[in-house]
Write a structure and sequence with these properties.
The protein is an alpha/beta fold. The protein is built from 15 helices and eleven strands.
């Protein structure tokens, strides 16, 4: 496991001086254990005591995200997610999603809004929209439905009215539109999920077209709070992220599954983004534990394996965001960001608490 500091090989005197400095800085610099870490992009769809125990030990809380809306599993996901939330309201507040299978039937928006309101009444804190909108589902004329399709406007308007954020995983990393590249962060995914690898498939909307449609939602609904999952699918373009955060005051991003992309940008440039937009960037991981997608039930060893990989991920992330000097991320050396304490507090929890109104969600009695 990478650590930001290594004391090995230092003379004892230096160690004492170092310990003294750490003691002096203790008030200002948050420690990994003390920092409340809210993973706003989690998918846990089984009641696994070892996961609850890990979260308690690491001081992690999640927002548990139901996704997608087009595979017919929405009722099941909602049931499991709200059960977990009922048992552990501080660990598993819920982001729900909406059905896409009945989009051609009458009163789609009215029915969808009613279903979302029922989820909000049970405590859901936000609504997820997934990449299937843009690169999978089509309208009656056989054309891809983009995220700013008028079909969804009444839903977005309703979310803005009731103050619930839209957690938007729209488009994909730019690599989906590029030839497979073994050195890419996303090679493993696109080489094994060819259905989402759109290079050489001109019938699909371009990355730019989907991003423009996503931006158009924010333009049409300026009071809708949008949290762009995965760096808003602009992981390759920090200037493009900054431009949108400037242009759309209702836009935010989270880093789930894209910290590895940040580590490949110059550390000063990533740090500058956090410094310019400290209130707009949220922490997340995007680890999935979804037994309903498996053919056979998971084993105890697999559950434990998931717990172990989660623990490693949270630690490696911390070493990158909070650590100093060289660190290792996914087996590559990179410079840690060493974000100032005030920014770390916002990134790791304060922004999520404000945007998703988590104080109320945590207090809620099932
Ligand atoms: Zn996800």
């Amino acid at each position: 496991m990478p650590t930001p500091f290594s004391l090995r090989g230092l003379a004892p005197l230096v160690v004492v001086a170092f310990a003294f400095k750490v003691a002096l800085a203790a008030d200002a610099a948050p420690t990994y254990e003390k920092m409340l870490k809210i993973d706003v992009h989690s998918h846990i769809f089984e009641d696994v005591p070892a996961i609850h125990a890990l979260f308690a030990r690491l001081n992690v809380r999640t927002i548990n995200v139901c996704v997608p809306g087009g595979d017919g599993q929405l009722a099941l996901m909602d049931r499991v997610a709200f059960e977990l939330y009922g048992k552990h309201p501080q660990l598993y507040p819920v982001t729900t999603t909406f059905d896409l299978l009945t989009r051609d039937e009458p009163n789609y928006a009215t029915r969808t809004i009613a279903a979302l309101d029922r989820a909000f009444a049970r405590g859901a804190v936000a609504v997820k929209i997934w990449k299937e909108v843009g690169i999978e589902i089509k309208n009656r004329n056989g054309r891809f439905i983009l995220p700013d399709d008028p079909l969804f406007d009444p839903i977005y308007a309703h979310l803005a009215r009731v103050g619930k954020p839209l957690h938007a995983h729209l488009a994909e990393p730019i690599d989906a539109w590029l030839p497979l590249d073994k050195d890419s962060n996303h090679y493993g995914y696109y080489s094994t999920n060819p259905q989402w690898h759109l290079h050489g498939k001109p019938e699909y909307p371009s990355h730019a077209a989907i991003i423009a449609a996503r931006d158009n939602i924010m333009k049409k609904h300026p009071t809708l709070v949008v949290v762009g999952a995965h760096l808003g699918s602009l992981e390759h373009d920090l200037d493009g992220i900054a431009e949108r955060l400037t242009r759309y005051p209702n836009f935010h991003i989270e880093v789930a599954a894209r910290t590895r992309n940040l580590t490949r940008h110059p550390a000063e440039k990533v740090r500058a983004l956090f410094q310019k937009f400290p209130d707009r960037i949220l922490y997340g991981v995007d680890a999935g534990w979804m037994p309903h997608r498996r053919d056979t039930p998971p084993t105890t060893a697999q559950r434990q394996g998931h717990v172990t990989s989660l623990e490693l991920r949270y630690r490696a992330d911390w070493d990158y965001y909070a650590g100093q000097g060289e660190t290792t991320y996914n087996n590559r050396k990179t410079d840690a960001l060493h974000l100032p304490p005030a920014i770390l507090e916002k990134f790791y929890h304060a922004n999520a608490e404000r945007i998703f109104q988590l104080e109320a969600a945590w207090r809620r009695q099932p």
